[in-house]
Amino acid sequence: MPIPRRVFRDLVCGRGPDKIRVARLPENLCGYIAARTRDIHIQRNYAIKMLLKHRLTYEDLATLQSAIDEGFCLRSKDHAMLEFVYYNASQKPYIVVLKCAAFGQELWVVTMHRSNRQQARSKTKRQYVYRDHA
Q: With CB atoms 3.0 to 4.6 Å apart as the test, which of 39, 52, 77, 100 could cross-link to 33 if both were Cys?
């Protein structure tokens, strides 16, 4: 489900809605966080933070669905959250955290950033893994 570049640009520039749908959670992972929806959204303020603080780009956001579909899925300390560790070709791994809110009716991107391989590997070894990478 690729997000058109224009839609993302409008989100961060304040010309569109305050949130957009950016991915879908696989049905088999919904039960871990009691999600009643599969649609994952990102808010404008986090999209801006992603660009400025984490130095991620539209192209990085485009890998979000792959991270969710193919990455390690880990249990978070907060039972309403899922963490994903995603290794792609030759770049640093992505860490993605999703949060379920509003009694399971909303799913949000809480964070998405790059990590070094050692930190990512450590995370997959010390946390409970719901799903190994695909």
A: 100
